C-alpha cells in the first residue's frame, strides 16, 4: 500500500488504508467490516484494471515501483554470475549480462536495468544503453552459444542513449549488428518485455524465438511523448499518441509481434514482485523446454521467418 500511487489507482487508497487499520486492531466485531471492505476493494480493483486505456498502461509500464530486470533475475535465476565489459571500450551498467540457472536450464541472461534511486538512475543511465552495452550483450550471447546455452533477454528501456558520445562510438552499428547476429544465433532465445520496450534500443536485444510481454508492458517504435512532439509539436498530447501507437501487449499480440502475454497480479506487477517473477519463470521454462527439442537449423529458419512475416494488419 505504501509508495507511489497513480491517479487512477487513488480510489483504492482510502479503502486499503482502512483495511490496514482494521487489521492492525484487535477489537472484537471487526471481522464483518473487514470482509466487506476487502470485497469492496477487490471489486474496485477489478473495475479499474479491466478498463485501462493505453496511456494508463504506459504509466503502469513506467511505474517506479515496478520490478526491474535485476528484481526478476534475483527471483527466477540461481547462481547468477554477472559478467562485465564489451572488450572494446568499457562496461555499461544499463545492460546486465551473465550466466545463471532457471529450472533445469543453464542459460545466458541479458537485460536492461533502470535505477530506482536518483544515484542508481544516473549510474544505470536511466536504463538507456550505450553501444558498449549492446556489444557486451552480444558478447555474452555469443559466449552462451559457444557452450550451447540458450539466451533469456529481459527488455525494459525507454530507448538507446541518443548522446553524442554514443553516436560517435557507433550506436546505430551496435544495434544493427545485434539484430543480425541474434537472427542466426545457434541457440534458443526467449524475450520478455518487462516494462518499456522503446524503439531500436529495445529491439537490439529482442530478436528471439519466443517474445512475451507482461500484461501492462508497452512496446513501440517511439515513445508517446516523442510521437506527440513530431506529429503535433506538443508532447502534452502523449495520451492521444499512445492511442494511435497501439503499443500495449494486447495490440502487439493482435499484430503478431509477440507470441503471448504474461498475466500480471491484479493491480499490476508493482503490487507483487514474487508472483510476477513466478509467472515469468514458468513461461520461460516452458519455452526453453519446447525450443531445445528443435534442431538448430530448423530453429534459426523459424526465427528468421517469424520476423519476415511481420506485416501490418488492419484493425
UniProtKB/TrEMBL annotation:
Pfam families: ACCA. Acetyl-CoA carboxylase is a heterohexamer composed of biotin carboxyl carrier protein (AccB), biotin carboxylase (AccC) and two subunits each of ACCase subunit alpha (AccA) and ACCase subunit beta (AccD). Belongs to the AccA family. This is Acetyl-coenzyme A carboxylase carboxyl transferase subunit alpha. It comes from the Bacteria. GO terms for biological process: fatty acid biosynthetic process; malonyl-CoA biosynthetic process. GO terms for cellular component: acetyl-CoA carboxylase complex. It is found in: Cytoplasm. InterPro entries: Acetyl_CoA_COase_a_su (IPR001095), ClpP/crotonase-like_dom_sf (IPR029045), COA_CT_C (IPR011763). Coiled coil: none annotated. Residues 36-290 form the CoA carboxyltransferase C-terminal domain.
Amino acid at each position: 500500500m505504501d509508495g507511489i500511487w497513480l491517479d487512477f489507482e487513488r480510489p483504492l487508497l482510502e479503502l486499503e488504508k482502512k483495511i490496514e487499520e482494521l487489521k492492525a486492531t484487535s477489537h472484537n466485531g471487526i471481522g464483518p467490516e473487514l470482509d466487506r471492505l476487502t470485497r469492496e476493494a477487490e471489486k474496485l480493483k477489478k473495475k479499474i484494471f479491466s478498463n485501462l486505456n493505453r496511456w494508463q498502461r504506459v504509466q503502469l509500464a513506467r511505474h517506479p515501483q515496478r520490478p526491474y530486470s535485476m528484481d526478476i533475475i534475483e527471483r527466477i535465476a540461481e547462481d547468477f554470475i554477472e559478467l562485465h565489459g564489451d572488450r572494446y571500450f568499457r562496461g555499461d551498467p544499463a545492460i546486465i549480462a551473465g550466466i545463471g540457472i532457471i529450472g533445469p536450464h543453464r542459460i545466458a541472461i541479458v537485460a536492461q536495468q533502470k535505477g530506482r534511486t536518483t544515484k542508481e538512475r544516473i549510474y544505470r543511465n536511466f536504463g538507456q544503453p550505450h553501444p558498449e552495452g549492446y556489444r557486451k550483450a552480444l558478447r555474452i550471447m555469443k559466449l552462451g552459444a559457444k557452450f550451447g546455452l540458450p539466451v533469456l533477454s529481459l527488455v525494459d528501456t525507454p530507448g538507446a542513449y541518443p548522446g553524442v558520445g554514443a553516436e560517435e562510438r557507433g550506436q546505430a552499428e551496435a544495434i544493427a549488428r545485434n539484430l543480425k547476429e541474434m537472427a542466426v544465433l545457434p541457440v534458443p532465445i526467449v524475450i520478455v518485455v518487462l516494462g518499456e520496450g522503446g524503439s531500436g534500443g529495445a529491439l537490439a536485444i529482442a530478436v528471439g524465438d519466443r517474445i512475451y510481454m507482461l500484461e501492462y508492458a508497452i512496446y513501440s517504435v517511439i515513445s508517446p511523448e516523442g510521437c506527440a512532439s513530431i506529429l503535433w509539436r506538443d508532447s502534452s498530447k502523449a495520451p492521444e499518441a499512445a492511442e494511435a501507437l497501439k503499443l500495449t501487449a494486447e495490440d502487439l499480440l493482435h499484430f503478431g509481434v509477440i507470441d503471448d502475454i504474461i498475466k500480471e497480479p491484479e493491480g499490476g506487477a508493482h503490487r507483487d514482485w514474487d508472483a510476477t517473477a513466478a509467472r515469468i519463470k514458468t513461461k520461460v521454462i516452458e519455452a526453453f523446454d519446447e525450443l531445445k527439442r528443435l534442431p538448430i537449423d530448423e530453429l534459426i529458419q523459424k526465427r528468421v521467418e517469424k520476423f519476415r512475416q511481420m506485416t501490418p494488419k488492419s484493425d
